[in-house]
């Protein structure tokens, strides 16, 4: 058998074994003799369980900040508005990197106040912020000594990133750093490696990227997470060793730091999950502008993950014209936060500040409404997880650490009754409204099924009912594993 045939055969065996394992609902590791030996595959099986990871998981809600030169152009070039992502204007308007970088002379955010940003985020209820330090265009929000395209070359000369790290840290919001490997400004970047010259150039590029990442970790040691992007090109996928090296380096430099799966590529160029199907990095970071299906994709509850949402359909950085696409409402954002928590994931909401350094009205409104809801109902989000109950049409379940189950209601049934199916041996003892208290009537209708009455008073927001449940001794382990 040729090595390539052997690989296919092993993958075939693996596919069968994985299905069998899913059916048994176990997180056990496959016997190693069925796995492809990998030098750059997953370094751990199952969820990371240390305190730093637990904190990441318990946070559940984060804020993404995309702020760079694209805020200045806001999707407009030479009088024409481009409807694509404003952060891709350089590509859509075919602007050379040299021309693009002249925007640095216009980087002068006179309204920027890091403390105000941190205050807004605090009120919004986010527990961490992911800041774009360098997007695909190569402009750096910190005065990097390895690049000529940084805030240090701009008129205001401020270390914007440094100010943000300090301000967020001061209000107890963890700082995560986004770093794009893909770099349109760097002469040594290659999309693919076609010859020796490319290989040498890309080697130099990787040295540059390593220096910058190291620089970030040593300048801002209070950082809790590194989030890598722009890792999909062939050139990068052929250098899985580098992604492993960088993750290890960061973990040595900042104990407890978390790293997203998007950084990693294995020996065969597989990303996020290695060729044996195991997650690389600490959490999956593939759910961008979408969420897993709450029924079909329930297996996702086996690992940590994070999802990202933009307010308009596909705008990360500031764009002048939001009317070009649908803009999500705060209730839709709340639904996404709940959806993610109900499946054991985190939701990160993206804001793209204006070139002056403040936020647009829609973002301020979003922060205020989400914040108010989180203040009232955060108990069903922070520290909560997948509840192990079958999804119903009225909304979502989450489960707190003490076993309390929360029903988060988005669709109130006209029947006035909400069905709750429970596994064998599980009883609902009591239901109460989370905010404002008050008992909610429940009735067992048939075996393993209850009706929870819609409360009499009209509530004009997604509301939460707390269920006290009792699990008989012999069912304790099985209940939480009840994948649907
Ligand atoms: O192209 C980028 C995009 O601008 C944004 O930064 C998002 C954030 O998750 N990531 C990339 C696409 O996957």
Key attributes of the depicted protein:
binds ligand FHN, 2 domains, eight-stranded parallel sheet, TIM Barrel, 484 residues, disordered N terminus, Immunoglobulin-like, four-stranded antiparallel sheet, alpha/beta, 30% helix, globular, 18% strand
- Order of strands side by side in the largest beta sheet? 7-6-5-4-1-10-9-8
CATH fold title of the largest domain:
TIM Barrel
Q: Report mean pLDDT, rounded to a whole number.
A: 92
* Poorly predicted segments: 1-29
Mind telling me which CATH architecture of the largest domain this is? Alpha-Beta Barrel
- CATH homology superfamily name of the largest domain: Glycosidases
Q: Which oligomeric form is depicted? A: single chain
Approximately how much beta-strand content do the residues carry? 15-25%
Shape: globular
Largest sheet composition: 8 strands, parallel
Strand and helix order: HHEHEEHHHEHEHEHHEEEHEHEEEEEEEH
Distance between the termini: 40 Å
Hetero groups: ligand FHN
In total, the number of strands is: 17
Which percent bin holds the helix content? 25-40%
Helix count from the secondary structure assignment: 13
**CATH C-level class of the largest domain:** Alpha Beta
Number of domains: 2
């Amino acid at each position: 058998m040729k090595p390539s045939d052997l690989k296919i055969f092993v993958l075939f065996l693996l596919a069968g074994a994985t299905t069998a394992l899913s059916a048994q609902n176990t997180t056990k590791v496959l016997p190693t003799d069925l796995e492809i030996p990998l030098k750059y595959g997953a370094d751990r099986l199952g969820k990371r369980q240390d305190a730093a990871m637990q904190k990441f998981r318990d946070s559940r809600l984060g804020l993404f900040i995309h702020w760079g030169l694209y805020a200045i152009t806001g999707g407009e070039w030479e009088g024409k508005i481009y409807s694509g992502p404003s952060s891709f204007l350089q590509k859509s308007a075919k602007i050379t990197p040299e021309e693009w970088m002249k925007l640095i002379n216009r980087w002068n955010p006179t309204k920027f106040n890091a403390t105000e940003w941190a205050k807004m985020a605090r009120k919004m209820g986010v527990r961490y912020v992911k800041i774009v330090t360098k997007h695909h265009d190569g402009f750096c929000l910190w005065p990097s000594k390895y690049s000529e395209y940084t805030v240090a070359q701009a008129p205001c000369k401020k270390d914007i990133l440094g100010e943000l790290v300090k301000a967020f840290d001061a209000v107890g919001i963890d700082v995560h750093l986004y770093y794009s490997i893909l770099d349109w400004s760097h002469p040594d970047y290659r999309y693919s490696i076609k010859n020796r010259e490319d290989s040498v150039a890309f080697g130099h590029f990787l040295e540059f990227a390593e220096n910058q990442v190291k620089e970030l970790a040593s300048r801002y040691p209070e950082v809790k997470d590194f989030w890598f992007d722009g890792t999909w090109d062939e050139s990068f996928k052929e250098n899985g060793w580098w992604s492993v090296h960088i993750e290890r380096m960061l973990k040595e430099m900042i104990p407890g730091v978390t790293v997203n799966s998007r950084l990693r590529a294995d020996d065969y160029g597989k990303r996020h999950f290695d060729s044996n199907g195991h997650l690389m990095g600490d959490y999956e970071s593939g759910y961008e502008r979408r969420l897993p299906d709450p029924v079909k994709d329930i297996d996702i509850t086996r690992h940590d993950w994070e999802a990202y949402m933009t307010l308009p359909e596909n705008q990360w950085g500031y764009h002048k014209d939001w009317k070009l696409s649908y803009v999500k409402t705060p209730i839709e954002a709340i639904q996404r936060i709940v959806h993610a928590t109900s499946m054991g994931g985190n939701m990160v909401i993206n804001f793209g500040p204006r070139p002056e350094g403040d936020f647009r009205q829609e973002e301020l409104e979003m922060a205020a409404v989400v914040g108010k809801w989180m203040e009232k109902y955060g108990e069903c989000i922070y520290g909560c997880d997948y509840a192990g109950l079958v999804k119903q049409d009225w909304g979502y379940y989450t489960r707190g650490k003490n076993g309390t189950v929360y029903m988060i209601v988005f669709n109130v049934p006209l029947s006035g009754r909400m069905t709750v199916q429970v596994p064998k041996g599980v009883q609902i003892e009591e239901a109460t409204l989370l905010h404002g208290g008050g008992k909610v009537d429940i009735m067992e209708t048939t075996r393993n099924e209850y009706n929870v009455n819609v409360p009499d008073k009209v509530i004009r927001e997604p509301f939460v009912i707390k269920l006290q449940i009792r699990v008989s001794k012999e069912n304790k382990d099985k209940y939480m594993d009840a994948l649907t």
